[in-house]
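Q: Please design a sequence for this.
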């Protein structure tokens, strides 16, 4: 793991390296994704079935494309009772947190003027659940629950199928417990295309959410505009901001918790303590001897993981804000005070007992978070992602009469005389 002393040159180098993890700029994959999307638009279900055979090695047709009730029942027989109970506890926490985000329609009336905002849920959403290197039932919960809380009526899930024609039982149980309406055996860019444009079997959606590989990310980018999307999620990342009070084993364990996601994951420690930095390196080496995904972790550590030593906490906070990490842990003497200086982070974990996996699985806040520095302007997935808002405007004749001259004058100043006429015509009789 690279240890660097913070200065302007090192900061620029690190920020440039982290940006290389972005999904943009791969022309070959972009073209491949575009071809897949157009093929699905033209050929519908048959294209989905062909791509599933080609990419996943599974035979899927109209008879088994949609997960059946029997498959869900079988999944429950394969998932330990304890995991089912934990999933239900997690759902309760996630629902409780997201219910606090609910918005209500509002109206106000005064002197013949009624203004307001009408809040409605989206009708249909498509949620993508990865199924390649690992299955993520936790991501099922984080996408389905806020959609359910928002009031979405039709929640569709797409997830890649194994060569045996099956989907991870954990994923199926999580989807059923959360309240998904239909689960399709499809993955990759072809699933995104099916959601965006519809097929004989897949209903076109209003919005696509959920993480995926580079093909999924670029497909979401390509269909944006035809449908809404949540974000172009990049590889996972964590930044731990710590001083000399932090326990090295905790910091090392938390860094590795994200490095195991994939080879492009980023794990960064920013600290004012050289002693802590050295001890964290030692702890990482110890943990690596017993972790299962050590090959993935090793590649991540080699390419995108850093220990940054800052001269003082102000410099440490500044680089933390510039990196704008997806996950930020603050393990300092007074983490709540340190937090007040943080401007950019997807989710903030305070104190040594608020490890990042707490947010991934159980606490309640959403774990679908902005990556690649986009926490500067994006927010976590929330109920807001599954609603739409309409403005309400109603003026009586008297209310409009008192201002129509101003409106017509403004429209004329923009050269839009038809706009002005639309207002003036209502009072020609008065003249």
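A: Design:
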């Amino acid at each position: 793991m690279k240890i660097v002393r913070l200065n302007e040159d090192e900061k620029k180098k690190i920020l440039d390296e982290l940006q290389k993890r972005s999904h943009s700029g791969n022309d070959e994959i972009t073209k491949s994704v575009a071809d897949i999307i157009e093929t699905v638009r033209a050929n519908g279900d048959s294209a989905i079935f062909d791509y599933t055979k080609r990419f996943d090695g599974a035979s899927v047709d109209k008879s088994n494309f949609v997960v059946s009730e029997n498959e869900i029942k079988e999944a429950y027989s394969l998932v330990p009772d304890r995991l089912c109970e934990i999933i239900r506890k997690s759902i309760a926490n996630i629902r409780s947190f997201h219910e606090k985000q609910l918005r209500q329609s509002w109206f106000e009336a005064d002197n013949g003027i009624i203004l307001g905002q009408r809040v409605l849920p989206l009708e249909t959403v498509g949620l993508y659940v990865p199924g390649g290197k690992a299955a993520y039932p936790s991501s099922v919960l984080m996408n389905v629950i806020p959609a359910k809380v928002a009031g979405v009526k039709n929640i569709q899930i797409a997830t890649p199928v194994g060569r045996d024609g099956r989907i991870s039982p954990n994923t199926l149980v999580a989807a059923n417990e959360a309240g998904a309406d239909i689960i399709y055996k499809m993955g990759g860019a072809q699933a995104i295309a099916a959601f965006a444009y519809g097929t004989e079997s897949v209903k076109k959606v209003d919005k696509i959410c959920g993480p995926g590989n580079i093909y999924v990310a670029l497909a979401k980018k390509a269909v944006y505009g035809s449908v809404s999307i949540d974000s172009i999620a990049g590889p996972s990342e964590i930044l731990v901001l710590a001083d000399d009070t932090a326990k090295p084993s905790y910091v090392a364990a938390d860094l590795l918790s994200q490095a195991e996601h994939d080879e492009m994951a980023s794990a960064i420690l920013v600290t004012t303590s050289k002693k802590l930095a050295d001890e964290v390196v030692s702890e990482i080496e110890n943990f690596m001897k017993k972790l299962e995904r050590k090959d993935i972790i090793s590649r991540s550590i080699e390419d995108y993981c850093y220990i940054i030593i800052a001269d003082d906490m102000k410099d440490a906070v500044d680089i933390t804000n510039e990196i704008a990490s997806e996950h930020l842990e603050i393990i300092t003497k007074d983490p709540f005070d340190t937090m007040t200086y943080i401007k950019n982070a997807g989710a903030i974990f305070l104190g040594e007992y608020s490890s990042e996996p707490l947010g991934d699985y159980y606490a309640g806040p959403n774990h679908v978070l902005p990556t690649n520095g986009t926490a500067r302007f994006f927010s976590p997935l929330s109920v807001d992602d599954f609603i739409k808002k309409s403005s309400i405007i109603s003026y009586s004749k008297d209310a409009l009469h008192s201002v129509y001259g101003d409106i017509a004058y403004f429209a004329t100043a923009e050269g839009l005389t038809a706009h002005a006429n639309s207002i003036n015509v209502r009072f020609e009789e008065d003249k």
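Q: Thanks. Anything notable?
A: The chain has a mean pLDDT of 93. The first strand starts at residue 2 and ends at 5.
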